[in-house]
């Protein structure tokens, strides 16, 4: 769906009180157009309706006229540079940012992340993570647990099936 049509739906959703739907549409637009600061501002406005200053600060982080309290809430929630890089959901070089302030913010976060990791990183390297998760579930052990859980479900289902066959023919 084109950008203007989706924004019209966002406006209709907000007018009808469907704030979660408006938020979902705006999140999709920011994902598709990460360098559009207007979309980020709109998303921050929706999070203000929810009373979530950390998320409002997240989406206003690249704006010079941001609220200091929201910025602090964002930085407190996403404590490490890696978490902030993920949360900002930026893709591509900082030069794509439409303002000097946004370019400086992006460069500062990327540089801090590079220093923390001890190697250079760029915005295309950062794997995405769920909003409320930082590095949880990214290791080999969690993959093992997921596989073991699936195997357990299959074995239980197989046991139920075999027990049913025994009962049917026994």
Can you give keywords for this protein?
170 residues, extended, Serine Threonine Protein Phosphatase 5, Tetratricopeptide repeat, transmembrane, single chain, mainly alpha, DUF6584, membrane, 8 helices, transmembrane helix
Q: Can you walk me through this structure?
A:
It is built from eight helices and no strands. Helix 3 (37-50) runs antiparallel to helix 4 (53-60) and helix 4 packs across helix 5. Mean pLDDT is 88; it is low at 130-138. The protein has 170 residues and is mainly alpha-helical. The longest helix has 30 residues, at 140-169. The protein has two domains: 3-136, Serine Threonine Protein Phosphatase 5, Tetratricopeptide repeat, CATH 1.25.40; 139-170. The chain crosses the membrane at residues 144-169. Keywords: Membrane, Transmembrane, Transmembrane helix.
What is the CATH C-level name of the largest domain?
Mainly Alpha
> What is the level-2 CATH architecture name of the largest domain?
Alpha Horseshoe
- SSE order, as H and E? HHHHHHHH
* Main beta-sheet strand count, sense and barrel state: none
Outline the low-pLDDT stretches.
Answer: 130-138
Helical fraction equals 55-70%
Topology (SSEs and partners):
Elements: H1 3-15, H2 19-32, H3 37-50, H4 53-60, H5 68-77, H6 81-88, H7 100-117, H8 140-169
Helix pairs in contact: 1-2, 2-3, 3-4, 4-5, 6-7
């Amino acid at each position: 769906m084109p950008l203007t049509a989706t924004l019209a739906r966002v406006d209709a959703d907000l007018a009808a009180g469907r704030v979660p739907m408006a938020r979902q549409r705006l999140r999709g637009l920011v994902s598709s157009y990460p360098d559009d600061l207007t979309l980020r501002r709109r998303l921050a406005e929706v999070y203000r309706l929810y009373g979530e200053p950390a998320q409002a600060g997240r989406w206003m982080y690249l704006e010079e006229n941001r609220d200091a309290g929201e910025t602090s809430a964002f930085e407190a929630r996403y404590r490490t540079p890696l978490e902030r890089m993920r949360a900002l959901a930026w893709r591509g070089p900082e030069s794509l940012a439409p303002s000097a302030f946004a370019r400086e913010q992006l460069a500062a976060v990327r540089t801090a992340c590079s220093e923390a990791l001890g190697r250079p990183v760029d915005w295309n390297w950062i794997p995405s993570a769920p909003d409320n998760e930082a590095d949880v579930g990214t290791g080999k052990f969690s993959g093992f647990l997921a596989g073991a859980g699936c195997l357990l479900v299959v074995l239980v289902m197989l046991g139920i099936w075999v027990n049913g066959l025994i009962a049917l023919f026994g």
